[in-house]
Amino acid sequence: MKLFYACSASTCVVLILLLLLYPVILSFIRSKSPKFEIYYHSVIALGLSFYISMMLLLLSLILPINMTVTILPWTNTDVFDMDISLQFDLYSVMFMPVALYVTWQILEFAYTYMHADPQINRFFKYLLIFMTAMIIFVTANNLLQLFIGWEIMGIMSFLLIGWWHGRADANIAALQAMIYNRVGDIGLIYAMAWFAIIHNSWDIQHIFQLPQNEKINLPLIALIIAATGKSAQFSLHPWLPSAMEGPTPVSALLHSSTMVVAGIFLLVRMNPLMEFNPTILTICLCLGALTTFFSALCALTQNDIKKIVAFSTSSQLGLMMVAIGLNQPDLAFLHICTHAFFKALLFLCSGSFIHSLNGEQDIRKMGGMLYLMPITSSCFTLSILSLMGVPFMTGFFSKDTILEAMSASYVNIWAITLTLMATSFTAVYSLRLIFFVLMGRPRTKPVSTMNEHDPYAIKPLVRLAVASIITGCLLVHYMVPPKMPVITMPPILKLAALIVSLIGFVIALGLAFMANKQLKPKPPSGPHHFSNMLGFFPTIIHRFIPKIILTMAQKIASKMIDQTWLKKTGPKAASNINKPLATTTSNVQRGMIKPYITLFLLTLTIAGILVYFTIF
Amino acid sequence: MTPVHFAFSSAFMLSLSGLAFYRTHLLSAFLCLEGMMLSLFIAISLWALQLDTTGFLTSPVLLLAFSACEASAGLALLVATARTHGTDRLQNLNLFQC
């Protein structure tokens, strides 16, 4: 039975990989024909792979086994073997259908969004290669395979963010993503090197079973750095909001629902190593709480619709990190899955609005979308409700459970407070989005070209909306967490998440109606600037520190060594000493009579003195 | 040294230093030269008188005559300088260009 499961599971994964790569290969063969549209092939490939992954999921429902399958040895040296091996546990089997479903919808949507792009075939190819890398990453049972998937995702992310590389902003954003991800990669490579040297194995199951001591802190911190880079946790976060320079489908797929959770997924995977390590767990907890609070704070005053959604993604990633820090990797994973649906939906709806408004992203210039695009608006509202954790929507099941587990545990009270404040901020900026985009009167340009007739634009939204309503319930029923959270708690704790969300909502509503009237001539204040300028974080990191380094370099290299030692004390000093002598000498010999007479007297005096002393 | 010796030699030294250090006018330079000549004249006369050599008594007169020639030549130069340079200031007189 186990053999049957192993065979069918690995067949499924191989099939999925082949299906995802077949449009790419096809495009190489038929790239000359002008009529070739990769779009149809990729949507079919993704749909089929989704159904295949569902088969795998159903199979694992019948046979709940964690299994690793080694397909073939890759290379072996005398001391170190590397195999191609796949892991089929709860995480990989469950994540695949979620990621494939979301990608399927996003690719279908991308056709409408990108139809005018001359390079659309290449765009789909990138997305497919990205998805392949993601599948390699989640099914890897081997740090090398994991690293390969991780790196391909990084490269694809760079290429896709810089898709409109004619714009300087897009290039800067792509470079930022690349550089911040490289910082994370260093962490992962360090951890891999450590495991290879100390444990002599890259097989994840082997690493878990080997005895551990306190030295494991080093690779675990390196893994946290890797997750920080990839999942845009605080201090390596600025690339995520900048990544919104890419096309909206890219933002939806890579930078909200699938790629950025890779860092969290890595920590979920490696959780058995940090399970009994309070230091590492506390680092995760504090990092996550800080991220979720800071990003929610920044989201409050942004005016770009995609930036707001990006910061909410960052905030939710922080929440996942908090769940890791609470030693509840299952909850973190659950939030990864549920978050994928509603965040992809939120992005696609934003993309739909942006596309209909001819690329207008500023929410102050939207308004009244409720009447102009009813279906998209409904989906938008649904996804926002899910994001806020309204009961029995998808987001509720994971978000509420994380907050519940948090308030019932005896961890750092500041972390709890920050996370709860971030939750209420979620409600505030969600309301702000609805208030500005959907409600009120249109503030758009008079000629309205928007319509909802394109089925390719609407179908994915509706499918994702349905998913954001029901999947949370389904996933929770399937995932019985092995680490049960505390059951008994007072009602105020049980309802804490809802209460803070409601408070945030009510306050924001009050503020929104007050903000209609401008009371002062200069309304924005210090806190507003802090939030609107992203906490001055990019300014400090990207400007201030390089400026210090450059100034130091200028002072030491240019001013001290070049200008002082090599110039002022060398040739300049020689010339400065010799110049007065030469000037004086030449000044005397300008041919004037008087100096000669004076010199004559001088000579005479000296001669007289000499003669006097010689005679007497 | 007798007071007479001191008087003419200090007059000579003063005129010489006046010629060397007083830098403004050509006229004053000539005056200093004249002073030097006069002190020399006194020195030579004193020499002849003290040694009681009458044969030498012509030489102060000869010196005086040469000094008158020198003064006239100097004044002619002064006039020429004033005509060519417009002034008799010494700073205008350059050996490289006349």
UniProtKB/TrEMBL annotation, chain A:
Keywords per UniProt: Electron transport, Membrane, Mitochondrion, Mitochondrion inner membrane, NAD, Respiratory chain, Translocase, Transmembrane, Transmembrane helix, Transport, Ubiquinone
Q: Which GO terms describe its cellular component?
A: mitochondrial inner membrane
Task: Give the matching Pfam families.
Answer: NADH5_C, Proton_antipo_M, Proton_antipo_N
Catalytic activity, per the record?
A: a ubiquinone + NADH + 5 H(+)(in) = a ubiquinol + NAD(+) + 4 H(+)(out)
Q: Which GO terms describe its molecular function?
A: NADH dehydrogenase (ubiquinone) activity; NADH dehydrogenase activity
Q: Where are the transmembrane segments?
A: 6-26, 38-63, 90-111, 123-140, 146-166, 178-198, 218-236, 248-268, 280-301, 308-326, 332-357, 369-393, 413-440, 461-480, 492-515, 596-615
Query: Signal peptide location in the record?
Result: none
Write out the GO biological process terms: ATP synthesis coupled electron transport; electron transport coupled proton transport
Provide the E.C. number(s) assigned to this enzyme.
7.1.1.2
How does this protein sit in the membrane? Multi-pass membrane protein
Report domain NADH-Ubiquinone oxidoreductase (complex I) chain 5 N-terminal positions: 74-124
The family database entries (InterPro entries) matched by this protein are listed as: NADH_DH_su5_C, NADHpl_OxRdtase_5_subgr, ND/Mrp_TM, NU5C-like, Proton_antipo_N
Assigned protein family: Belongs to the complex I subunit 5 family.
Q: What function does the entry list?
A: Core subunit of the mitochondrial membrane respiratory chain NADH dehydrogenase (Complex I) which catalyzes electron transfer from NADH through the respiratory chain, using ubiquinone as an electron acceptor. Essential for the catalytic activity and assembly of complex I.
* Protein name per UniProt: NADH-ubiquinone oxidoreductase chain 5
The taxonomic lineage of its organism, from the top, reads: Eukaryota, Metazoa, Chordata, Craniata, Vertebrata
List the gene name: ND5
From TrEMBL, chain B:
- Main localization (coarse): mitochondrion
One MF term from GO for this chain? NADH dehydrogenase (ubiquinone) activity
Q: Any transmembrane segments, and where?
A: 6-22, 29-49, 61-80
- Gene3D superfamilies linked: 1.10.287.3510
> What is one GO cellular-component annotation here?
respiratory chain complex
Reactions it catalyzes? a ubiquinone + NADH + 5 H(+)(in) = a ubiquinol + NAD(+) + 4 H(+)(out)
Biological function: Core subunit of the mitochondrial membrane respiratory chain NADH dehydrogenase (Complex I) which catalyzes electron transfer from NADH through the respiratory chain, using ubiquinone as an electron acceptor. Part of the enzyme membrane arm which is embedded in the lipid bilayer and involved in proton translocation.
Q: What is this protein called?
A: NADH-ubiquinone oxidoreductase chain 4L
Organism, as annotated: Betta splendens
Show the taxonomic lineage.
Answer: Eukaryota, Metazoa, Chordata, Craniata, Vertebrata
